[in-house]
Amino acid sequence: MKVYFTASIVGKKYHLANYLKIIDILKSKNCQVISDHIIKSTESEVKLEKKEDRLKFHKQLEKWITSSDFTVAETTFPSISVGYEISLAEAFLKPILILFSEGNPPSLLAHHRDEKLICEKYSRENLPGLIDDFINYVRGNNDTRFTFFITSKIASFLEKVSRKGKLPKSVYLRKLVEEDMKKKNNIDF
């Protein structure tokens, strides 16, 4: 699978290790990752580009996004350019995984209702599971994505269980449902 990865070039100063971790996990899942434009570029290089170069880059950007199977955006450090790339990916009907490691999700995307756009807070511990779940979703291995509202008390509990067990909240909830199904119907998974 081909993945378009984007993140803030300015944010590399603070989050490069996270960017590289995301890329490494994607590559370990046999994904071809388009990421050099983020990893190898610098803020000063981008500022010095001529208009013709920026227009040429934009055409290349569209080719990368349209040729990819999905997009992963690391959004911890705010970036208008990354927001634009997310919008492009959405316009091209690409599944998008929006990741952030600190603070709150991007405000316009936090409660977006497109099932192809998934916004997740990550840590180094739960990142592999989040990416694995998303790749399975893109491949169609997951039957359904199910979203529901919970109280802040339940959310707090799930966050603690997730951190302690070093697994995504969705995996924890899925295991609970599977265990209950086994008890009630003797169904094996």
What does this protein structure show overall?
The protein has helices at residues 12-28, 36-39, 43-48, 51-67, 80-91, 127-139, 152-165, 169-185, and strands at 2-7, 32-34, 70-74, 96-100, 117-121. It folds into 2 domains: 2-145, Rossmann fold (3-Layer(aba) Sandwich); 148-189. The chain is α/β, with parallel strands linked by helices. It contains 8 helices and 5 strands; from the N terminus they run βαβαααβαββααα. Strand 1 (2-7), helix 1 and strand 2 form a beta-alpha-beta unit. The two termini are 27 Å apart. Strands 2-1-3-4-5 form a 5-stranded parallel beta sheet, sandwiched between helices. It comes from Candidatus Gottesmanbacteria bacterium RIFCSPHIGHO2_02_FULL_39_14. This is 2'-deoxynucleoside 5'-phosphate N-hydrolase 1. One of its GO terms (molecular function) is 5-hydroxymethyl-dUMP N-hydrolase activity.
Short description:
The chain is built from eight helices and five strands, in the order E-H-E-H-H-H-E-H-E-E-H-H-H.
Question: Which descriptor suits the 3D outline?
Answer: elongated
| Beta-strand content estimate | 5-15%
Shape-level CATH architecture of the largest domain: 3-Layer(aba) Sandwich
How many strands in all?
Answer: 5
End-to-end separation:
27 Å
Helix/strand/pairing class, anyone? Answer: alpha/beta
Overall CATH class of the largest domain: Alpha Beta
For the biggest sheet, the summary is: 5 strands, parallel
Strand arrangement in the largest pleated sheet: 2-1-3-4-5
The protein's oligomeric status is: single chain
Organism: Candidatus Gottesmanbacteria bacterium RIFCSPHIGHO2_02_FULL_39_14
GO molecular function, one term: 5-hydroxymethyl-dUMP N-hydrolase activity
GO biological process, one term: deoxyribonucleoside monophosphate catabolic process
Protein name: 2'-deoxynucleoside 5'-phosphate N-hydrolase 1
